[in-house]
Specification:
250 residues; alpha+beta; Aminoglycoside 3'-phosphotransferase, Chain: A, domain 2; five-stranded antiparallel β-sheet; three-stranded antiparallel β-sheet; 8 helices; globular; Kinase-like_dom_sf; transferase activity; Aminoglycoside_PTrfase; transferase; AGP_Transferase
Length: 250
């Protein structure tokens, strides 16, 4: 019998791998429904859906490897990063899905969440006040009107698989929906800013990508993530992770 590998697990959901099958366990039925719907609509490679019996979703494993991981070196080539950029552009150009996603929160809601989180980070001594203040200023660039696109919503580097210069699949679609395209680009390059140029080359030069907005999303996403990561057993203080991203803005 194949061993059971715990890919990721916390109080909200868990993903297990058994041989060539991934089992996602999520108590939130809406997230499972959103993931199944998004994979059916996305014009990019996604895992084969084997079966869905909430709270469990079974998916076939993808071929290829990820381009690296947050906090670690990139194992992918420039061509691989560019291919990922092209796939992201294909997604963003697709017809809009019916529901808003994580990247589609309103500016007012983001401002309220961000300001409350910044206050907690300082009050609880999680991060120094000057680090929080500086990154709150950088975040301001992301807080602007945007044109809705089909977004993944959680496009971490570990969620995109490539084989050479071909994208073989994108996983974890539970946060997908209408949202800000630059949120996806920023999430994908978080902690790997040296490959932003490769991603944008694949994404296409016909689109004017505001780098200040990308930087703003790097800061905003990191500020909102630090305390949650600590509380769920992850380490945002590890080299190359969220706190280092925040420090790079100083």
């Amino acid at each position: 019998m194949d061993e059971v590998e715990v890919v990721v697990a916390h109080s909200e959901r868990a993903t297990l791998r058994v041989g060539d099958v991934f089992l996602k366990v999520d108590a939130d039925r809406a997230r499972i429904d959103a993931e199944v719907e998004a994979m059916s609509l996305a014009p990019v490679p996604t895992p084969e859906l084997l079966w869905c019996k909430p709270p469990v979703l079974a998916l076939a494993a993808l071929s290829g490897t990820t381009l690296g991981r947050l906090g670690g070196p990139s194992t992918g080539s420039s061509a691989g990063w560019a291919a990922a950029g092209a796939a992201i552009r294909q997604l963003h150009d697709a017809p809009l899905p019916p529901r808003p996603g994580r990247a589609g929160r309103s500016v007012d809601a983001l401002v309220a969440e961000l300001d409350a989180e910044c206050e907690l980070l300082v009050t609880n001594g999680v991060l120094p006040a000057d680090l929080v203040t500086r990154n709150r200023q950088v975040s301001e660039a992301a807080l602007r009107p945007w044109t809705p696109a089909f977004t993944h919503g959680d496009l971490q580097i570990a969620h995109v698989f490539v084989d050479g210069d071909e994208v073989t699949g994108i996983i974890d679609w539970s946060e997908a929906g209408q949202g800000d395209a630059l949120y996806d680009l920023a999430t994908f390059t978080l902690g790997h800013q040296e490959h932003l140029g490769d991603v944008l080359a694949g994404y296409g030069t016909d689109v004017d990508v505001d780098l200040d907005v990308i930087h703003g999303w790097w800061s905003l996403r990191s500020l909102l993530a630090v305390r949650w990561l600590v509380e769920h057993g992850f380490d945002p203080f590890a080299p190359g992770c969220e706190v280092d991203v925040l420090r790079s803005r100083m």
